[in-house]
Amino acid sequence: MTATLIQRTASAYNYPLLIKNLFFAPVVDNPDQEIVYRDQLRYTYRDLRQRVCRLASALTTLGVKPGDTVAVMDWDSHRYLECFFAVPMLGAVLHTINVRLSAEQILYTIDHAEDDFLLINDEFLPIIEQIKGRIDTVKQYVLLTDLDSPPQTSIPLAGEYEALLVAADATFDFEDFDENTRATTFYTTGTTGMPKGVYFSHRQLVLHTLGNLAALGTPTVQGRFHQQDVYMPLTPMFHVHAWGMPYVATALGVKQVYPGKYAPGPVLQLVVREGVTFSHCVPTIMHMLISHPSFDELDLSHWKVLIGGSALTKAMCRKVLDHGIDVFTGYGMSETCPILTIAHVNREDLEIDDEVNIRCKTGRPIPLVQMRLVDEQMNDVDKDGEQVGEIVVRAPWLTQGYLKDQRNSENLWRGGYLHTGDVANINQQNYVGITDRIKDVIKSGGEWLSSLELEDAIGLHPAVAEVAVIGMLDKKWGERPLALVVPKKDAAPPTPRQLISHISQFIDKGLLSKQAMLLKIKVVDAIDKTSVGKTDKKNLRIKYLS
User: Fold this and answer.
1) Catalytic annotation present for 443
2) Which of 5, 29, 301, 338 has the fewest beta carbons closer than 10 A?
């Protein structure tokens, strides 16, 4: 069979998939919609269009040209949103620096990404002052600040953000270029060695946005993100483009609220005052919110929250649902732009336990995602909800590799699929349920124990606030699970006997392996987290097993 190619006429416009084409339509169609920054600033999409053009003009005046890398160190702000568009729309690369990394790791990422320009919030000036003598690539620094009188600094500043915008032209002609041009770079959180750089093109970011518009916009009610919503990110904008949701929100033309630095009280007040209806966060942030004294006093029943980054436990899900919040899971990773699956509930006749089970699953693949669960020989496992395999994927928005790291890039894409390192099962309805990271599986007595399933069960104990399970060496069993338990503040710490009795109920029901009875328990004050709020099991192993 011979394929027939579509021939383009000489006068037809070859429409490239560029970020600018996500930006202009909603600005034109909904110019009076609002962008809100904390309690400090409020402006319209009409203003947003002018500010993005002014930023592009200002950066061009500073010397930014296509192919340059512009780095940003800021909290979640309207400025960051403007950079999400203006920088890549110039043909430059936006490097979103993880401000929670150590000074040495930040220096490494600036050097590795070869940043040419750095936009920096005044809160992070001390970090750059500490390392500035070793920064070789940055030509110009721009100050970002909310203060009327910014602090003094030894860093040579080219200007302050708002002053540069005021002096810049409010119009800018963003030219077309190849849609495969790199748009963004950021770095993984560095739990093993130095952070690794991942990167995405305009085409990939546009297709990721369209895939999420389809996945989130088509449900009837539950978990829907639509044009009447009010959006506020609670995933840092430096981390995987805040899961790409600012692009989705802008493409929809919805009201957007940016909270700055996360603090539970102000965040909850913003949700209520601005009528926020759609957010996303890691479980650590949700735990911070539900632990705040004002949480139980506020009506949050209009709020939809997508949870990712770590497993949503059934205990947390029940508590949040009881408060009227539509909470559900999404899944992805830095290398996948990130969203691959979403756990929507597609039935209304479910018992609450069954509904919680679905909401806590990894979810079903969104449009354009090809997902397989495979064994070590790349054979597909059965769709029986029990057999486990590694999640491997193909989608048009997956990173093509790690920046300047051919060896790890080849390993990431071995066999023509991106290897996630996550172990999961899948059922006949295509709901995926992650059971562990490959490196976190506990191999005990010839069986594989899921640390996530153990954490989920232990987390249902009424005296447990947080829990992390790691594998510890054992002469007889190879490994046995060690549970690090943070007790609730208003409860007595649970005893080992109480927790063993608690999990025995799950073993009796066939929900946990009998090897779970080998559990060791240690009460701790806190669970170590990575810079983006995930449980840092590498550090926990060093701290408690070394």
Assistant:
1) yes
2) 5
Active-site entry in 44, 261, 448, 534: 448
Question: What is the number of other CB atoms lying within 10 angstroms of the CB of residue 518?
Answer: 20
pTM, entire model: 0.86
65, 139, 439, 443: the active-site residue: 443
351 is catalytic: no
Catalytic residue at 209?
no
Per-residue pLDDT tens digits of the chain, which is 546 residues long: 567 776 767 678 889 999 999 999 887 778 999 999 999 999 999 999 999 999 999 999 999 999 999 999 999 999 999 999 999 999 999 999 999 988 999 999 999 999 999 999 999 999 999 999 999 999 999 999 999 998 899 999 999 999 999 999 999 999 999 999 999 999 987 555 688 999 999 999 999 999 999 999 999 999 999 999 999 999 999 999 999 999 999 999 999 999 999 999 999 999 999 999 999 999 989 999 999 999 999 999 999 999 998 889 999 999 999 999 999 999 999 999 999 999 999 888 899 999 999 999 999 999 999 999 999 899 999 999 989 999 999 999 999 999 999 999 999 999 999 999 999 999 999 999 998 888 887 877 666 788 888 988 999 999 999 999 998 988 888 889 999 999 998 888 889 899 999 999 988 887 787 888 888 999 999 999 887 788 888 888 889 987
Which of 69, 83, 38, 96 has its CA nearest to residue 531? 96
Walk me through the domains of the chain, giving residue ranges and CATH numbers.
Answer: 14-200 (3.40.50.12780), 442-546 (3.30.300.30)
Backbone angles phi, psi at 250, to 5 degrees: -70, -40
CA dist 102 and 141 (Å) reads 20
Q: Catalytic residue, from 179, 335, 455, 466: name it.
A: 335
User: Is 335 among the residues known to form the active site?
Assistant: yes
Q: Is 86 exposed, middle or buried (0-12, 13-18, 19+ CB in 10 A)?
A: buried
